[in-house]
Amino acid sequence: MVGMRDVAKRAGVSLSTVSLVVNGTGYVSDDMRERVRQAMESLHYVPNDLARNLSRNRANTVGIIVPTIRHPFFATLTASLQHVLSEQGLQTLLCSTTDAVNGEAEYVDMLRRRLMDGIVMGAHTEHAPDYWTSIHRPVIAFDRVLGEGIPSIGSDHVQGGRLIADLLIRTGARRVAVIGGPRTQFGASSVERTTFPTVRYHLALERELARAGVHYEYVEAGEVMDFAGYASAVRSVFDRGADCAVDAVVSSDIGASLCVREAMARGVSVPDDMQIVAYDGTYLTDLAGMPLTVVRQDFQGIARCIADQMMRLIHGKESKGAVSDAGAANRAAYPVGEAEQLISVSLVEGATTRDRH
Question: Which has the closest alpha carbon to 249: 217, 227, 280?
C-alpha cells in the first residue's frame, strides 16, 4: 500500500513537506507542491481521510436525526441540509428514529467518540436538557427546544399562523377545522411555554380566529408518520352533518392534499364550499389535483442557517440567537427563547382559497 513516505521518496522531498501538501497547512513553494502532486498521481496515492481528520480532531461528518424520511417535509428538509452541508465540506449521516430502534443513542455515542462533528436533532426526545449539554459537542435543535445552551433553529410558526388567520378571516371563513398530530404534543398550553415550536402556528391561528369570532376546532390525526391517521381524520371532517360542517380546513401538505382528493370524490366545491390551506410547501402541493394555497417554509433558508451555525460551533465560535423580521415583530406577544433563530415563512395563494374581500 502506497504511503506518504513513498510519495516523499518519489518527489525527492521530506515527509513533512508531503504532509503539508496533503493537509493543506503551512507554506510549501509552488515547485515543491507540484513535485508532490505529480508523485502522488504517478503512485496513485490516495490520502487517508480518516487519519487526517483524526489528527485535526475532525470527522467532517454531521448526523441528522429526524422522525422519519417517509414524510415529505423531512425528506425535503434533509435533502436541502445534505446539499448545503456538502457545500461546507461536510458529509451527512441520516437517522430516522422510527426505523432505527437505537438510532438516537448510537448517534450521540458517535458524537461523544468524535466520529461526528455535530448533530442536528429534529426528532422527539425524552432526554432532559442536561443530557444534551453534557455531550460538550455541537448539537443544534431543529423545530424543538432541547434546553438552555442548545441553539434552536426553525420557521417562524407564529407568523405562519397569523398569515393563515388573516387569509381565512378576509375570505369570510366562519367555521375552521385544523387537522394535526396528537394535541398532547403541544406540551404546554401556551405559545410562550411550549418546547415544541411547530405547534405555535396552531396556537397563534386559534388565538387570532377567536379574536375575530371565527369558530375553530382541532381534529387530531396520528403521529407524523401515521398517514392512515390523517386519512381517517380527513374523512371524519367530511362525514359531518350540515349543522357542524366546516367551510375551511388547515393541515400539513399531506392532510390538505387528502382534503382536496376527498372533496373531489364527494362533489364538494373547492374553494366555494370549502377552503383548504396547506402548511409546509413540499412537492405534495403540486400533486394534490389543484394548486394548493400554502404557507411555505423556507427549506433552503433553514438548511443554510443550520449549516452556518454548525460551522461556527465546530470552529468554537459562539453565535447569538437571531430572528426574522416577522419574528422580531412577534416577540412581544409571542416570546421565543434567547437561543432560537427563526426563518420567515411565506403565503402562496393557489386555487383552494377564495379571493380576499
Answer: 217
Mean pLDDT across the chain: 85
**Comparing C-alpha atoms, which of 320, 302, 315 is closest to residue 138?**
315
Instruction: Give Cα 197 to chain centroid, integer Å.
Output: 12
Over residues 93-104, the mean pLDDT reads 76
Rg for the chain (alpha carbons), in Å? Answer: 25
Rounded Cα gap, residues 64 and 16, in angstroms: 36
- The rounded distance, in Å, linking the Cα atoms of 28 and 20 is 7
Burial 26-43 (b: 16+ CB within 10 A, else e): eebeeebbebbeebbeee
Taking phi over 0 as left and psi of -120 to 50 as alpha, with beta for the rest, 128 belongs to beta
Quick check: 305 and 277 in contact, CB under 8 A?
Answer: no
Residues forming a β-bridge with 160:
none
Residue 83 is which amino acid? H
Entry pTM: 0.79
